[in-house]
Amino acid sequence: MPKFQWEATTRARYISKDDEAPWTATSLPPVRATGLPANVTALWGSSDHQVFAGTYGGDIFQWDGRAFTQAYEGPWRGQASIRAFGGGADDVFAAAADGVLLHFDGAGWRRVPVPDGPHGVEHLTGVAALPDGSVVISASGSQGRLLRGTAGGLVELTRTPIPLIDLVAIGD
User: Fold this and answer.
1) 22 pLDDT more than 50
2) Closest CA relative to residue 74, chosen from 113, 22, 27, 32
């Protein structure tokens, strides 16, 4: 018998069978530029008070423990669709379509240049934080490639004949 159960209602509700912390459902506010609902494509957090949601339009919303607010305005129409997040509390990267890489330093988001630019259509697809504070970024397109570095600069590690969809750091 499962320890939990979801009830089908107009509002999602989590029912715990044990003394676990209760879950609640929330929604994102409408996208500022369009007033339309956000289409979430990536979700990541470093704590209960810092969660990021990326959207198809490249917008980023931030959870502060109480509510989501829009923290970054994307180019819309699927350009720069957020694919993945990773990093640390005040050192967060957002990997996006069209070779767009964004960095959050605790105060705001800014674009980070990708070395040697994309070759053809390239989508950044994954972010893995390493123990030394750097990140590895995966990419897909006509080729795959791996990038490594910090917000101060990235270098290309390798290119592969196959697109890289995602990655994870295991151990050190």
Assistant:
1) yes
2) 32
Which residue stretches of 6-109 are H helix?
none
CA angle 93, 98, 102 (to 5 degrees): 20
Q: Can you tell me whether residue 151 is helix, strand or coil?
A: coil
pLDDT per residue over 152-162, tens digit each?
Answer: 999 999 999 99
Q: Is 82 exposed, middle or buried (0-12, 13-18, 19+ CB in 10 A)?
A: buried
Which residue has 């979801």 as its token pair? 6
Buried b (16+ CB within 10 A) or exposed e, 37-70: ebeebbebebeeebbbbbbbbbbbbbbeeeebeb
Identify whether the C-beta of residue 127 lies closer than 8 Å to the C-beta of residue 110: no
